[in-house]
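Issue 218. Parser rejects a valid record. Input:
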Amino acid sequence: MSDKECDHTSVGMLVEKDEGILLIERVKKPFGFALPAGHVDEDKEYDKAAARELKEEVGLDAKHLELIAEGRKENPCRREGGSWHYWKIYRVLTQGELLPNTDEAKEARWYPRNAIKKLAKITEAYIAGTISEEQWKASPGLEPVMYEWFKKLAII
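Output the parser choked on:
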């Protein structure tokens, strides 16, 4: 558990290239594959938090941010009191070299939509209870809140 209290605010950054969509595999709870994402915290403004989190998690600089979705989602957080977040999802144009922060991500790479759909199937099995927590940790799908966002954004 983190020492920080959850501020119930989160940002997610959709970064696309020809090779697909940038996903990280989380090192810490909540496990799974996700867009680079994080809390707003001290930034107070969602767009500033999005640029900060993108740099922290994957080393990329945000050149342009476009808000593409927002809303409240029930999703667990490793921080105290975190059971929901108000999210803002941005499409981001970036510059720089992809350098994943190993404290945050096991890996970061570009996933084609067909690979994301396969990860979504694993998530569906996890949500349905047909794979165990141990199986999920060993070979996760999309983080459940990302599964919801990807459905809303018609990625899956």
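Fixed in the parser; the record now loads. The two ends are 31 Å apart (CA to CA).
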